[in-house]
Design brief:
The protein is about 45% helix and about 15% strand. The protein has 12 helices and 10 strands. The protein binds guanosine-5'-triphosphate (GTP) and magnesium ion. Guanosine-5'-triphosphate binds next to helix 7. It is found in: Cytoplasm.
């Protein structure tokens, strides 16, 4: 496992940009998420910098004036890591490292670091390690190019070149070894999934930290680890659940995030197969999060990438207990009603008109509306169960 970029108890500075796609407010929200990621990785955010730029500087991402400002801060405040919200090229990362003389991470690197810290089973560790090497490979090339250029011309094929080649070869060998290892595990997992028989499979999906594991624990009386950090779950848990008289399988798995690194999506293929092979998705949403609609979009995008967007889906709006909204005074005739003024009832109406019965509002923590939730899951599972076991529907006589 490569863990050289661990952020344990480190002072960190965040850097984001403001441009046509993301205004100052959006940029701030993205940095909030980056701060939460940093906290999850064990770091402490001491300062944020933003810069208005449409086209990032190809050499240093941000402009030189801003870079001076950051450098000044980093030097006087003993900062250990500078974290960019956007993906840096290998060259940019190297250049910035030279200027700031501290650890430079981008969002992808940070997420990989969290996954590395949190992977428990050897299976999850193998998947993360593969993703880390895939991320490292192009950067390894970049790591050396400045030396190549310095040496220049004749004699360039000296030890530097050999070293890069050796390093690259080692990494490539490792990648192919890990891939082989994963193929073997994948096969075992596929057999395991096959052994589960024809039971209906339900998968909890959703953005990270929305309460999937908490809901799993409520429904299945299991004890999946849940906490207020991102990516608490990396491994998949499958439990047999019985509601009324139908048994089915419920899967809790890794949460999604905006711009989930492609390396991770690929190497977590087998974990995501649980989602791909599910008959029914429970898309859990944290309605108390100001960006929950964007979270839904990110999740849908990833579901689309893994060919699972068309599955029967129940939208589960969780954390209604902590939902808050801004109110407009009765005598205020100026303020326009926007989404931040929506009451929970407004949201219910909005989503019910969009999805009809395929949505439910609950609190997994306070067990609010859990009976209705179970009822909806039961009905959805029953529909699939009947289609699968057509001669077996006498089982449901009591529950028509
Ligand atoms: N207020 C409130 N908090 C909740 C509710 N459900 C879960 N939480 C909290 O939200 C946090 C995240 O819960 P998890 O169950 O770990 O979320 P998850 O979706 O499994 O997260 P990952 O595994 O990291 O993707 C924990 O601190 C929970 O206690 C809820 O209904 N209301
Ligand atoms: Mg979880």
């Amino acid at each position: 496992m490569i863990e050289e970029k661990s952020l344990e108890l480190e002072k960190a500075v965040l850097i984001g940009i403001i441009n046509k796609e993301q205004n100052a407010e959006k940029s701030e929200e993205y940095l909030d998420e980056l701060a939460f990621l940093t906290f999850t990785a064990g770091g402490e955010v001491v300062k944020r910098f933003t810069q208005k730029i449409d086209i990032p500087n190809p050499k240093t991402f941000i402009g030189s004036g801003k870079m001076d400002e950051v450098k000044n801060y980093v030097e006087t405040n003993d900062v250990g890591a500078v974290i960019f919200d956007d993906e840096l090229s290998a060259a940019q990362q190297r250049n910035i490292e030279k200027i700031l003389k501290c650890k430079i991470l981008d969002r992808t690197g940070l997420i990989l670091d969290i996954f590395a810290q949190r992977a428990q089973t050897s299976y999850a560790r193998t998947q993360v390690e593969l993703a880390q090497y895939e991320y490292l490979l192009p950067r390894l090339t970049g790591l050396w190019t400045h030396l190549e250029r310095q040496r220049g011309g004749i004699g360039m094929r000296g030890p530097g070149e050999t070293e890069i080649e050796t390093d690259r070869r080692i990494v490539r060998d490792r990648i192919s070894l890990l891939k082989k290892k994963l193929i073997t595990i994948d096969k075992q997992m596929a057999v395991q999934r096959g052994n589960r028989g024809k039971l209906v499979r339900v998968a909890l999906v959703g953005y990270t930290n929305v309460g999937k594991s908490t809901l799993m624990n409520v429904i299945s009386k299991s004890e999946v680890f849940a906490e207020n950090k991102l990516f608490a779950t990396l491994d998949t848990t499958v439990r047999k659940v019985v509601i009324k008289n139908i048994p089915f399988l419920m899967t809790d798995t890794v949460g999604f995030i905006r711009k989930l690194p492609t390396q991770l999506v690929e190497s977590f293929k087998s974990t995501l197969d649980e989602v791909r092979e599910a008959d029914l998705l429970l898309h859990v949403v944290d309605i108390s999060h100001p960006n929950f609609e964007e979270h839904i979009e990110s999740v849908n995008k990833i579901l689309d990438e893994i060919d699972s967007a068309d599955k029967p889906t129940l939208m589960v709006f969780n954390k209604i207990d902590s939902y808050t909204h801004t109110t407009i005074d009765n005598d205020d005739l100026v303020t326009e009603k926007t989404k931040e003024h929506y009451t929970l009832e407004d949201w219910k109406k909005t989503w019910m008109s969009k999805l009809d019965k395929d949505c439910i509002f609950i609190s997994a923590l306070n067990k609010e509306n859990i009976d209705d939730f179970k009822d909806k899951v039961f009905k959805a599972v029953k529909k699939i169960h009947i289609a699968r076991f057509p001669y077996n529907d006498f089982l449901y006589q009591d529950y028509e």
